[in-house]
Amino acid sequence: MIDFRSDTVTLPSEKMRKAAYEAEVGDDVYGEDPSVNKLEEKAAEVLGKEASLFVTSGTQGNQIAALTHCRPGQEIILEANAHIFLYEGAAISAFAGVQPRTIEGNRGAMDPKLVEESIRAEDVHFPETGMICLENTHNKAGGAIVLVENMRAIYAVAQKHNTPVHLDGARLFNAAVASGRDVKEFAQYTDTVQFCLSKGLGAPVGSIIAGSTDFIQQARKWRKRLGGGLRQAGIIAAPGLLALEGNVERLEEDHFHAKQLANGLSQIDGLEVVNQVETNIIMVQITKENGSTEQLLDAMKQHGVLAGGMGSDCIRFVTNLDISKVDIEHALSIIQKII
Ligand code: TLP
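A: This is the predicted complex of the input protein with TLP.
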């Protein structure tokens, strides 16, 4: 199978399995797992934040941000197609007791002016704005990079109104590598950042949430409340550290593969690539009359190529570190034949 459903599907490398096997471990609820501590220190340093926390998933990291920054009855400002809004089972409402206030973005970027207009004034009728969420790269916008300049402008608005900014940076390293910038440049315009080790970076499990020492202290408590306090978690943190130290630069090749795939797909009669491919996500629409997304996905599957629907009329192809140039050429020839 050539699997383009997501970059979450990568399998741990030999080195990662060996790191898991050999990891020094302890009870992380007591803060005694040396491998987890090492990963958390490294992640905080890479992002330029005071501290960080290893969490089970991107969703858990984002929810911990909402729970720590906000109180029930508040409102979160976020982009209308944000993962937190569309794909996290309304967890912000279910757990943190907040409601979303969405803003239609441009390729995932919200207009800072609209963000400022959406911040609630003090009024007995209104919820308070508890936090502003950004997403970079933006998944539903096809892995679009939200520019540092846009983040800086939104952060200035947030600071003026004393409102925390959280970044859902599930694929922040993709944004940084593709724009030739350091992740710190993005992270400096946020109070907290969540990034996934188990997406583009290729680790089997886990995410990081980073922020101030005080924030992480409270976040640790929320993680425990959510049942996310793990014990000998070094087993999964060690491959995560390898991913962070060894796979960031490899994203450049991954993005190159994505461009090759996008180029090939756009030359197939009956398909249209509808996003500008900046990182590792390609959104494709069928232009052929009577062609259905489900039919094409089924036929591709029968020929060993998987891609995702993501609940829209687009087919999402995501490249990842396990996909080679040969896989891409092979997949293109199959799709060409069956369409
Ligand atoms: N995204 C997954 C699916 O949930 C759609 C994927 O395959 O892309 N933020 C962003 C921007 C994400 O894309 C995802 C996962 C998450 C958060 C949640 O991460 P996990 O799956 O680790 O909870």
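The chain has two domains: 12-246, 250-338. Residues 12-246 form a domain with the Aspartate Aminotransferase; domain 2 fold (CATH 3.40.640.10).
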